Amino acid sequence: WLLQGRGVPQYALRVLTNPLRRCEYLHSQGGRPFSVLRVVRDPRETIISGYRRHRDCSHTGEAWVRERGSIDGEMRNSRLGRSVGQWLNLSRHGVSTATHSYCTILSAVPTREGVALEIVVATARWLGALMSFVKLLDDLPQLKQWVRLVKQRSLLADVESTLSHLADWMFPTA
After folding, report:
1. Residue 98: CB partners within 8 Å, gap ≥ 6?
2. Burial of 36 (0-12, 13-18, 19+ CB in 10 A)
3. pLDDT band at residue 79, thresholds of 50, 70 and 90?
4. What 3-state class would DSSP assign to 78?
5. For the chain, which terminus, N or C, has the lower number of CB atoms within 10 Å?
6. For residues 16 and 63, what is the distance between their CA atoms, to the nearest angstrom?
7. How many other C-beta atoms lie within 10 A of the C-beta of residue 23?
8. Which region among 7-21, 66-80, 157-171 has the lowest average model confidence (pLDDT)?
């Protein structure tokens, strides 16, 4: 099928496969395939925002941030995690990914190191899938007829124009 043999990670396949298969099927039956619209916030802003939110144990609504060992897998199971882990040397701050919660670790390390940790966690939890999604669109230009990425900043800067362009794409008149 379209995605096989492309080196697309399994988590990206799970995110992409069903909607794209439905698009392909509907198109092959002569019907209009539905469209995939994904609004994307600048990853740098998302990482900094996530770092600030995750550092404060008492105000985060995400339970995993307060669980001991919640980022141990991300740190041990990825090349990026192992590299950042070696660079950080968390034990000098009296914390460990195996025995401390993520928010406790972020509170114990300087901001620069905390942001580096947030990049590792973001890559494992959502950024890697987004990067795979974008790479897939670059590798398979035929998908661009069904998929649009919209920058959140562009949408907020000119809502009327952006929505007008999206409406033209989603509901063509000709």
Report:
1. 69, 72
2. middle
3. confident
4. coil
5. C
6. 27
7. 20
8. 7-21
CA-based R_g, the chain, Å: 20
Q: How far is CA 139 from CA 8, 51, 96, 153, in A?
A: 11, 32, 39, 25
> Using the 8-state DSSP alphabet, how is residue 147 labeled?
E
Of the candidates 60, 49, 45, the one whose C-alpha atom is nearest the C-alpha of residue 103 is 60
DSSP string of 1-59, one letter each residue = -TTTTS---HHHHHHHHHHHHHHHHHHHTTSPPP-EEEEE--HHHHHHHHHHHHH-TTT
Please state the rounded mean pLDDT for residues 84-89: 79
- What band does 143 get if pLDDT is binned at 50, 70 and 90? confident
